[in-house]
């Protein structure tokens, strides 16, 4: 397992004084509530959808 995959899965978590902004970002998604809250956030969801729809060329591959 790569270091990124380990961090994303929660297999390895740095000490709070060693955490970077990336660590804090991914840690925020490890909490259950965010996965319930995000789909209910219509402004955020519509913004993501519109960004993808208007930039389809970036997602081809």
From TrEMBL:
Write one Gene Ontology MF term: protein-arginine N-methyltransferase activity
Keywords from UniProt, A to Z, are: S-adenosyl-L-methionine
Region annotated Disordered sits at 1-20, 36-61
| Residues forming coiled coils | none
Bias kind Low complexity: ranges: 7-16
Q: Which residues lie in Basic and acidic residues bias regions?
A: 51-61
Q: What is this protein called?
A: Uncharacterized protein
Recorded source organism is Pristionchus pacificus
Q: Which gene encodes it?
A: WBGene00304909
């Amino acid at each position: 397992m790569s270091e990124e995959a380990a961090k994303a899965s929660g297999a390895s978590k740095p000490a709070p004084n060693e955490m970077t902004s990336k660590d804090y970002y991914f840690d925020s998604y490890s909490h259950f509530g965010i996965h319930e809250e995000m789909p209910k956030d219509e402004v955020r969801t519509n913004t993501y959808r519109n960004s993808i729809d208007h930039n389809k060329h970036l997602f081809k591959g």
